[in-house]
Write a structure and sequence with these properties.
367 residues
């Protein structure tokens, strides 16, 4: 079999139908718009994600016979309340703890140096003074580079204050109209698509429930894990509890890798504050229990429709989409990977089903 025949067979299998070609064009244009115009459309995309999250609450209220506009207003006011609470309470707390952590860095370095000196005194054959100096110098250079990056980021962000204010104004407005006029907006978008869109409908139906379940479930998981971690760290008297809790909550975005990465700062802060004693061990055990409950109890409860993807596929999706779209790419890595899988499975089946329907219609006409 020649390469030409293989290519022709592939085209006949996947692109022999007009609707399949249109779906491919829509997907390519959608990805291109997000890649090249993502920064420009960031307020719109952010509002779209938030409206998608809040739509479930609106639907729950309307099923209880609450008028649509009243349901939208209740959910929207709750969203604004949470937004104000984060801006006025959570963000200042995290910022203060971050500033304190930076100020305490020299003392941490002194503790590390003392620990290395003790290690060298106990095991002079394993650790030499030159190695200790190399380690300290390497850590100092990394901290210096981190400080320079933070300073550059802060100076660059000063020019974006106006843009940030515009985003803070635009996003809530967009969210309100997306919730209020959802049917009109969806109807307008659907009107732009061809009338014969059975394949698109099939793919969308397979993905709609999974994406909605994943996005809302992941948001709920971040809130629950972050809150439990915060109160746990507060109970043990661990400093920077809010900062570490936010890091632990966001770590659930990256499967397998996030939990391991979040363990390092938790263990480092606990070790510096408590030393390598019983209190340090209690904090690490409590953190391990949180991660175990998250993976074995919370995730199965929240994600009722499990995403049937191999761990290698999940990691590749996180690396690829995270590299292309940053934070949102990491957040939507699993839904996008599921979308690609649904396309691979639904595309040829949809074309075959379409051919069968056309053949049946022709047989009916002939008879």
């Amino acid at each position: 079999m020649t390469l030409r025949s293989v290519f022709r067979s592939w085209v006949d299998h996947y692109l022999s139908d007009e609707e399949a070609v249109i779906l491919l064009i829509v997907l390519v244009l959608g990805f291109a718009v997000v890649i090249w115009l993502g920064k420009m459309l960031a307020p719109f995309l952010t509002a779209l994600v938030i409206a998608f999250l809040l739509q479930g609450a609106v639907n729950a209220l309307t099923r209880r016979r609450v008028p649509h506009f009243l349901a939208v207003m209740l959910v929207y006011l709750a969203f604004i309340g949470v937004l104000l609470a984060m801006a006025l309470i959570l963000m200042p707390l995290i910022w203060n703890q971050l500033v304190n952590l930076v100020q305490e860095t020299p003392r941490m370095f002194a503790s590390v140096q003392q620990l290395l000196d003790d290690l060298q005194a106990r095991y002079p054959q394993l650790v030499t003074p030159d190695q200790i100096q190399d380690w300290i110098g390497m850590a100092g250079r990394e901290v210096t580079q981190l400080g320079q990056r933070a300073l550059t980021l802060s100076l660059a962000s000063l020019g974006n204050v106006v843009a940030l204010i515009v985003y803070l104004v635009l996003v809530p407005i967009l969210v309100f109209f997306m919730l209020k006029d959802r049917d009109r907006l969806v109807g307008f978008t659907v009107s732009l698509l061809p009338k014969n869109r059975r394949l698109m409908t099939r793919v969308w139906q397979e993905m709609d429930d999974q994406i909605a379940n994943y996005v809302r479930g992941k948001f709920t998981e971040i809130i629950i894990v972050g809150s439990v971690a915060f109160f746990t760290f507060m109970f043990f008297g661990l400093p920077y509890s809010a900062l570490l809790a936010v890091l632990v909550g966001l770590s659930v975005l990256v499967p397998y890798i996030g939990a391991a990465v979040a363990t390092l700062p938790v263990a480092a802060v606990a070790g510096f504050h408590f030393g390598l004693g019983d209190q340090f061990l209690y904090v690490i055990i409590a953190y391990g229990v949180i991660q175990a409950l998250d993976g074995n109890v919370l995730v199965p409860v929240l994600f009722s429709e499990a995403v049937n993807l191999h761990p290698v596929s999940i990691i590749l999706a996180v690396l690829f989409f995270g590299g292309v779209w940053g934070f949102w790419g990491i957040f939507f890595a699993i839904p996008l990977a599921t979308l690609l899988k649904a396309l691979v499975y639904a595309w040829p089946r949809g074309i075959q089903q379409r051919r069968q329907e056309v053949s049946q219609e022709e047989e009916v006409v002939e008879s």
